[in-house]
Design a protein that fits this description.
Length: about 475
Amino acid sequence: MAQDPAEQLDASAVAELAPPPELFSPQRRNSAGMNLSDPAALRHLRRELDEYAGKLWQASPLIDGKRLRGEGLTVYSPYGRGAAIGQVLASGEAEIDAALPAAERAFADWCQQPVVKRAACLQTAADLFERNRGELLALCVREGGRSLSDALAELREAVDLCRYYAANALVLFGRPQVLPGPTGEDNRLGYRGRGVFVCISPWNFPLAIFVGQIAAALLAGNSVIAKPAEQTALTAMAAVRLLHRAGVPKPVLQLLPGDGERVGRRLLSDPRVAGVAFTGSVATASLINRQLSQRAGPIATLIAETGGQNAMLADSSAHTEQLVRDALQSAFNSAGQRCSALRVLFLPEETCDAVIERLIGAMRLLRVGSPWDFETDVGLSSTRPPWPRCTPICSASPNSARCCTKRRCRPLARTAAFSRRAWCGFPIWQCWRGKCSGRYCTWSAIASASWSGWSRRSMPAATA
């Protein structure tokens, strides 16, 4: 208060805003974005994606740099039941048993490599991901059922994670940290890899979480056995190939697609596994924890990111349009298939009716359909129909809940091999109101259910 405000303003002049690629400079370069409202950019992206519209990918175990050959199961797109996108050859017991000794042999040399070299591999991988944007986006859309905006965000997150972990590894592993101690005593803290890490990733983030787990483990000096989700093994195979091209030694990074229970049970019971990075359900994380605790040998590290329920509380000062935008983005990005998706929105009574009216209006404008269509806002789920879990809520008593609005998806292309029931489901979005006690007297819950048929693996047309 004793200083001249004009002098203070001059002294704290706002620095020039950094351009997007340099937002995180000098630590790292930001991932490349895209203006999806620019027609020229969309036309260019459409040409990139169309190159992979009919491509068939292959995924199989990669052990010590060698790919297993054989006839795999045909994989179909979650939104085009008759559209094959490739084949996946699952890992057998022989491949699982061969992966562990190969990863164990590769660990010692990889751990001794300078962190600068390990970081350079991941920086190169980030650049390769961006240069192969068209193929990775096509895989996220065709195999994972992601909308264009979700797929682009996923690719950017994978790139950012590689660069972020590389930058931090240079600090943590570059030189030991000197610690305080008594006179004449030299205390230093350093980090090194633990050994073989098993990375188990989910289907709802087939690229970002898959790459992030691997990148962190590799930069710490560990060798990695990657176990992707069964539904997105083709995306995982493409990512691993790019990591190998970036300089990660093939024996250091192994890939084991296949049934999670069989692969996991055999791997996690082996004392040569030094750690596990897992993203998925609480139940599966608890099972992994018990498996690790029951085996002989050194105690293994478990890094588990599990599911949850997300709620939003908005008071009467919240800007209505911004609140509606954020609620819809949280609830329906990735078709609601993420643990951070909004489940419940709490509102005060004085603003509840106005917010719900705008919320319903905004929901009616969202377009539901094939994620390959650039006009789609919300794609379909990539797993079995979640509708049975929503049915009890939808049939609740009018006194406790009421359905405010519903949406149906636009019809998808019919295929001769599958019936209407198999090739197209009907997403339904609902908003309920009810009474409760406490400061937030009125609540609104948002739920989405969307599906595209039955199992994504090869099946007789009659079964579908």
